[in-house]
Structure to design on (241 residues):
C-alpha cells in the first residue's frame, strides 16, 4: 500500500468500529417502539408495502444501470477514485437537498412524493460510486452488492452488523445470495427514516426539515459507500498504480 492507501485503511477501520458500536439508549428504544408498531400493522399491508418498495427499487436499479457511465479503469489510484466520489456526492447531495425542500414545502401530497424521488437519487449515486471504484453494475452480483450498501447505511444496529459481515466476506457470501429479503429491506429502511420524514409533512417546517434530512441522508450514504468500496479494494492484493 502507498501512503494514501494506508491513511484510507485507517479511516475505514475507524468507520468500521463506529458501525460495530452499539447505538445509544434513545435509538434502541425508538427501534423497539417501531417494532411494536410494525407488529400492529396488518400482514396484508406489510405485503403491499414490501412489494411496492421492491418494484420501486428494482425499477430504479434498471433505470440507473441504463444511464450509467463506463467503469473507470483499474489503473486509477484510490486517491483519484475517492476525490471523484466526493465530487459526485456533492452533486447528488445538492439535488437531494433541493428536492427535499421542494417536496417538504408542498404539503402532504408532495411530501409523500419525496420517498420515490429520494430513493432514485440514492440509487443513482450508488451506481456512480460502483463505476468509479471499478465495478461493473451490468453484473447482477454488483447490483446486489449495491443493495447491501444501501441496507448497511439505513438499518438498525443488528442488521448493520449482519450486513457488514456479508460485505466483508462478499466473495464467499455472494454465492449464497439469490435476492434480497425485501420484507426486511423495506422495514429497516422505513424505520430508519420514518420520524424525520413524518416531520417533513408538517406545514411550516416541511421545507427546512426536508432539505436538512435529505442532505444528511445522502451524506451518510456517501460515507458508507466510500468506506465499503475502500474496504473491498484494500482487502485485495496491493496493485501497482
Amino acid at each position: 500500500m502507498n501512503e494514501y492507501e494506508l491513511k484510507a485503511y485507517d479511516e475505514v477501520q475507524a468507520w468500521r468500529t463506529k458501525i460495530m458500536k452499539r447505538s445509544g439508549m434513545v435509538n434502541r428504544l425508538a427501534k423497539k417502539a417501531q417494532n411494536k408498531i410494525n407488529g400492529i400493522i396488518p400482514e396484508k399491508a406489510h405485503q403491499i408495502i414490501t412489494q411496492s418498495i421492491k418494484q420501486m427499487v428494482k425499477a430504479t436499479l434498471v433505470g440507473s444501470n441504463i444511464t450509467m457511465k463506463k467503469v473507470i479503469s483499474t489503473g486509477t489510484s484510490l486517491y483519484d477514485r475517492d476525490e471523484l466520489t466526493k465530487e459526485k456526492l456533492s452533486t447528488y447531495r445538492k439535488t437531494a437537498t433541493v428536492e427535499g425542500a421542494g417536496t417538504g414545502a408542498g404539503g402532504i401530497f408532495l411530501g409523500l412524493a419525496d420517498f420515490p424521488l429520494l430513493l432514485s437519487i440514492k440509487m443513482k449515486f450508488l451506481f456512480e460510486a460502483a463505476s468509479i471504484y471499478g465495478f461493473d453494475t451490468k453484473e447482477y452480483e454488483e447490483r446486489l452488492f449495491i443493495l447491501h450498501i444501501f441496507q448497511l447505511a439505513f438499518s438498525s444496529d443488528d442488521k448493520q452488523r449482519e450486513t457488514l459481515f456479508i460485505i466483508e466476506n462478499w466473495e464467499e457470501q455472494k454465492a449464497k445470495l439469490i435476492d434480497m429479503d425485501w420484507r426486511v429491506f423495506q422495514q429497516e429502511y422505513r424505520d430508519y427514516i420514518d420520524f424525520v420524514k413524518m416531520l417533513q409533512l408538517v406545514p411550516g417546517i416541511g421545507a427546512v426539515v426536508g432539505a436538512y434530512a435529505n442532505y444528511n441522508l445522502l451524506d451518510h450514504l456517501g460515507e458508507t459507500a466510500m468506506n465499503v468500496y475502500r474496504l473491498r479494494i484494500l482487502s485485495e492484493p496491493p496493485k501497482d498504480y
